[in-house]
Every structure is written in C-alpha cells, then in structure tokens.
Design a protein that fits this description.
By secondary structure, the protein is α/β, with parallel strands linked by helices. The protein has one domain (3-85, 96-127): Rossmann fold (3-Layer(aba) Sandwich), CATH 3.40.50. The chain contains six helices and five strands, in the order βααββααβαβα. The protein has helices at residues 8-12, 22-32, 63-66, 73-83, 97-105, 116-127; strands at 3-6, 36-41, 59-62, 90-94, 109-112. It has a five-stranded parallel β-sheet, sandwiched between helices. α2 packs parallel to α6 (116-127). The chain is globular and about 35 Å long. The mean pLDDT is 95. InterPro entries: ACAD10-like, HAD-like_sf, HAD-SF_hydro_IA, HAD_sf.
Length: 129
C-alpha cells in the first residue's frame, strides 16, 4: 500500500473537543513513511483543510468539485489518479459502510471506521503506521 485516503466528517471529526483528532496522527505517520495522502469528502463545492492540516494532504477531492459523490466508483478512481497511484495501492477510510463498499468496488482496500482505536489498529496492520 502506498496511499491513505480519509473521509472528513465522521472520521477526521471523531475526537474529543479540544484534542487533535487521532486520525490526524495517522496521517502524519503515513507522511513520515512516504505514503501519499488524500482527503475525500462528499462536501459541496471546494473545501480546504484547516491551515494546521495543509501539509497533510497531497490531494483534496470533494464531490462538489468532482461532480460525483461517494459511493460512485469514479470519485475513488479520480482520487487515486490525483495521488499518482492505482486504486489497489490505496487504503480508504470512511464511517459509512456504503462508501467503504464503493471504494472496494473501485479496487481499494476499505476500512470501516467505527472508533479511532479500531481504525488506528487496522491502519497499523495494513500500513505499518
């Protein structure tokens, strides 16, 4: 695996008030290990990460900008392309099972986010981070 793609709402927003989201730490670890990273969200229009996260993503893809929404296979393929990777090189994390199934149909490894601890354990197994 050479890429990590995360959803925003329900994944990066899964944290206690005032603390850094645990999955932001996973993004930082992925970057240190040379992985390409992306944010894929069904947000309307263009979305930019908070300034303190700007260096965490090689690509940011939103459904409003792309014209397709998860779980449409095309948005996953576009995200992989923007990372310069094949879908088979990517792990995708989302809190909605339908979106994880869409990523798997596009050829990615899907991780269904339920809790930060479970997702971090899964990413450790898949990516060694």
């Amino acid at each position: 695996m050479r890429g990590l793609i995360l959803d925003y709402g329900g994944v990066l927003t899964d944290h206690e008030q005032g603390e850094e989201p645990p999955l932001v730490g996973a993004l930082r670890a992925a970057r240190r290990h040379g992985l390409r990273t992306a944010l894929l969200s069904n947000a309307d229009g263009r979305w930019s990460p908070p300034p303190e996260w700007a260096d965490l993503f090689d690509a940011v893809v939103t459904s409003g900008e792309a014209g397709w929404a998860k779980p449409d296979e095309r948005i996953y393929l576009l995200t992989a392309r923007r990372l310069g990777l094949t879908p088979a090189d990517c792990v995708f994390v989302d809190d909605l099972a339908v979106n994880v199934r869409g990523a798997a149909a596009a050829g990615m490894v899907g991780v269904h986010h339920r809790t930060p601890a479970e997702t971090l354990a899964e990413l450790h197994i898949l990516l060694g981070i």
